[in-house]
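In response to reviewer comment 3 from the previous cycle, which asked for concrete evidence that the modeling workflow produces usable outputs, we include below a single protein chain processed end to end. The sequence was submitted unchanged, and the resulting structure tokens are shown without manual editing.
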Amino acid sequence: MISGIIVKILSIVLLIVVAVVLILGIGTLFKGGETSKKYSNKLMQLRVLLQFIAIILLVVFAYYFKN
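The workflow returned the following structure tokens.
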């Protein structure tokens, strides 16, 4: 029971983190200038990495808790 709650909380946290990085990346991209050149691509690369980690963990959770 406890582990199911932890998985739900961890899943929500992962999705929120990906969303925050996405919003920061888009905001930096629209801001333009030197900030955009320096951070926008790095933030989007971080988003892709975080999405990969989130998807892998969600698939593992689904497999583990398939009952």
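Helices lie at 2-31, 33-64. We consider this sufficient to address the reviewer's concern, and the full set will be provided in the supplementary archive.
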